[in-house]
Amino acid sequence: MRRIGVVVPARDEEDLVERCLRSVVTAAEAVVGAEVVVVLVADGCTDRTAAIARTIPGVEVMVVRAAGVGAARELGARRAIARGCSWIACTDADSEVPAAWLVEQLRLESLGWDGMIGTVRPDVADLSEVEQEHWLATHHQGHPNGHVHGANLGVRTASFVRVGGFRALAEHEDVDLVERLRASGAWLIDSDEVEVTTSGRREGRTVGGYAGHLRRVAAMLGDMDPAVV
Fold first, then answer.
1. Measuring CA to CA, which of 3, 10, 199, 229 is 20 to 30 A from 90?
2. How many domains are there within the chain?
């Protein structure tokens, strides 16, 4: 049976993890002819993230001690690979994937692509009106920007293993992986076909990341004190 793995690192995401995992399960249910292995890595959580994740049927939960997002994503990927997955799809616990998310990645795998660099959109409920207008003005459907997001990333297992997988970085482990994939000659596609909705919060679980980007945008728009960026 063909298998695709989904890896979700999480740290103290009790408020959002259920929404994330239920969206992943919905995407898995849309897959025909392949098994989906979902692994959530509860990384140094001090809240109910792991307990909530265990209530979602079909989700395997790994609990680790504050390994960091790079190491956590790698542990989840290696677990999926051990289960025989030929493709690894990554998202984040504060994100919500569309129903066709995995179907599209399996299609790209069948076409010979080694990786998908997907786009994300912030949850508009978390943005001010000015931020919403700025986002809409700078993002256009059908023109993916090529920015790398761990919340919407897919990679062929063989290519992932060949370049050494995710490194144990405190952040930007996704960007680092893609750089090494590109250097190896991997065939990567930028795509906004299955855009992922992610939290628009300004305080994330890493110093930078998408939350850091949103802080910088807010400061630029005058919605946030530049001193706190």
1. 229
2. 1
The pair of structure tokens assigned to 121 is: 């959109």
Task: Give residue 21's domain range.
Answer: 3-123+143-200
Q: How far is CA 21 from CA 35, 39, 63, 86, 182, in A?
A: 16, 10, 16, 21, 30
Residue 96: inside a domain: yes
pLDDT in tens, the chain (229 residues): 899 999 999 999 999 999 999 999 999 999 999 999 999 999 999 999 999 999 999 999 999 999 999 999 999 999 999 999 999 999 999 999 999 999 999 999 999 999 999 999 888 777 667 776 766 777 778 778 889 999 999 999 999 999 999 999 999 999 999 999 999 999 999 999 999 999 877 565 666 555 554 445 445 556 544 433 3
Give the domain CATH number at 16.
Answer: 3.90.550.10
Does a structural domain hold residue 194? yes
Model pTM score: 0.86
Residues whose CB is less than 8 angstroms from the CB of residue 204 and which lie 6 or more positions away in sequence, other chains included: 94, 210, 211, 212
Does the residue 219 lie in any domain? no
